[in-house]
Design brief:
With 184 residues, the protein is an alpha+beta fold. It is built from five helices and twelve strands. It catalyses: S-ubiquitinyl-[E2 ubiquitin-conjugating enzyme]-L-cysteine + [acceptor protein]-L-lysine = [E2 ubiquitin-conjugating enzyme]-L-cysteine + N(6)-ubiquitinyl-[acceptor protein]-L-lysine.
Length: 184
């Protein structure tokens, strides 16, 4: 199905659907959390789409930045999104708040590479919450935007913490997350 976009594999018809689900040549969906944007396109067009359709996303340069999520006490499900540019690549930083059940909220922080799964394997990210003689750190390989935020959360491949922990590190309802990207 994706031969026109560069896939050169020839498979038996029974193997085809499984491959198409993970094929690096399938169109990329908009990586922004939430289902409101239905955009799809090539990997090369993702950044252009984000800059034009999602102008509110801030991009910071450098491998060591602070991702500031403001008003973490907002009710309901909320997403904070930011871009980090370093090592010639763009990374999407996402903090997502979900209400698991009435009165119990959880936060999920993840870094995605605007790139392929193979490219993502070349990097490691570290998320760190600091405050009041406490430190919470998560270190992992970023996921490709092909996988998306929901897959990372579903597989628990992200920094997850509840509201009580968030408040230990928050300052006036704002949560600063130190984000460091390195090559491996």
């Amino acid at each position: 199905q994706y031969a026109t976009t560069g896939c050169s594999l020839t498979l038996h018809h029974t193997e085809k659907p499984e491959h198409e689900d993970i094929c690096e040549y399938r169109p990329y969906s908009c990586p922004c959390p939430g289902a409101s944007c239905k955009w799809q396109g090539s990997l090369e067009a993702v950044m252009s789409h984000l800059m034009h359709a999602h102008k509110s996303i801030t991009t910071l340069q450098g491998e060591d930045i602070v991702f500031l999520a403001t008003d973490i006490n907002l009710p309901g499900a909320v997403d904070w999104v930011m871009m980090q540019s370093c090592f010639g690549h763009h990374f999407m930083l996402v903090l997502e708040k979900q209400e698991k059940y009435e009165g119990y909220q959880q936060f999920f922080a993840i870094v995605l590479l605007i790139g392929t799964r193979k490219q993502a394997e070349n990097f490691v990210y570290r998320l760190e919450l600091n405050g009041n003689r406490r430190r919470l750190t998560w270190e992992a390989t970023p996921r490709s935007i092909h996988d998306g935020v929901s897959a990372a959360i579903h597989n628990s491949d992200c920094l997850a913490f509840d509201t009580a922990i968030a408040h230990l590190f928050a300052d006036n309802g704002n949560l600063g997350i130190n984000v460091t990207i390195s090559t491996c």
